Amino acid sequence: ADPNPNPTVVLHACLGVGHLIPMVELAKLFLGRGVPVVIAVPTPPASTADFFSSTASAVAGLEAANPSIAFRHLPPPDYPDPDPHPFLQMLDLLRLTVPSLLAFLRSLPSVAALVLDLFCIDSLDAAAQAGVPAYIYYTSSAGDLAAFLHLPHHFATTEGNFKDMGKAPLRFPGVPPIPASDMPHTVMDRADPICTIRVGHYGRILEARGVLVNTYEWIEARAVRALREGVCVPGRPTPPVYCIGLLIVEGEAAAQGERHACLSWLDAQPERSVVFLCFGSMGAVSAAELKEIAHGLDNSGHRFLWVVRTPPVDPAKFFLPRPEPDLDALLPDGFMERTRDRGMVLKMWAPQVEVLRHAATGAFVTHCGWNSVLEAASAGVPMLCWPQYAEQRLNKVFVVDEMKFGVVMEGYDEELVKAEEVEKKVRLVMESEEGDKLRERLTLAKEKAAEALAHSGPSRMAFAEFLKDSKLST
Ligand code: UDP
What we know:
By secondary structure, the chain is of the alpha/beta class. The chain has 19 helices and 15 strands.
């Protein structure tokens, strides 16, 4: 008899809430198909414990909320002298974790596949050494993936830096023209060591057996076609791409505890009347912009539900947990009293998926983190795009120019988004014909998301195809 009838799939996660949440959802997908999985998470060494404390607590929360999923905390690497740059510190941690991942893979009786987050790309080495087929799980858009796959070729065949090109359009296969200034900060300057590291990462995607993408084909048809046709990397074959999304948390917050007070508040508001503002797990606007938002909302006259975070003070402390915001100090005098009947301000966190799905929610001011975009699309809510970091500016381009799901908050790339702009765009989405058109598109996006996830829908079929290609099913 086969001593290992059920080889395990190891999912290798990075430390970032927006990456961990879809990884947990992927684990559920495997379990639902009877494939045993374990999520291997890096453990920050003591020298970086402060820095990673908020993501470490997110891991603990996800673990507690998902008792049926096995988590494996890989031993912390030796890292006595952490890089002061937050992003490099994270990448160092992931790279230094490769040996512990290899030891873990070797300790298991049988591993069917390693599925790794793109940030953990160095773990391809562990997979190769352990003789395990490796796949990438890409937790952002297919459009980002298409652009990033193309970057090594772009850098090899051109000169100059995005940072010097202003808004000049970049023409990459599969995506609309991207203003150079909307590329991620990490690749703005080829002399920057981070740029070399990231472009190296993108080049390594080609080594994977396949790429699972948390998207559904309908919203990114052009990018997905380019990825399938292999035109993103001239002259080199690209691995097969499986659009298995959207993988988002299904109303778990509600199932786990008491219903959040903001949902009861939404119950009392008219249909599609509330503007929801939330900037992901780490995003926050400056103190000056908080005041601009408040004035803009005030002047728009619309209802709102607003998640306020303490503004970041020091970019080096970007990932560090921030104290709760002092609303009296941060918001304009009298704002809370004036808007008491039509607004609710939450400190730090909202049950976003439930809020977006609530009938009272009519628009979403978002930083364009990919999970947020998927959650809004599948809930049928138009977006007001205010990108902040990572690949959010790219997602903004796709949301506005390709998907036609939203509008831009002008000033996102300048010193300030002004109150007049907030008011103007809120009114546009909530009151104008253009807003009606966006809602029509989003109604379709919502239907297509439901179709993608239906029993034999495209995303479920893509996952089945992946299982078959990777010999996890027949
Ligand atoms: N999120 C939430 N409440 C908040 C902020 C974020 O539930 O107040 C969730 C959100 O629903 C999404 C994730 O955290 O699933 C954030 O992921 P995204 O990709 O949008 O942004 P990131 O945090 O990675 O920048």
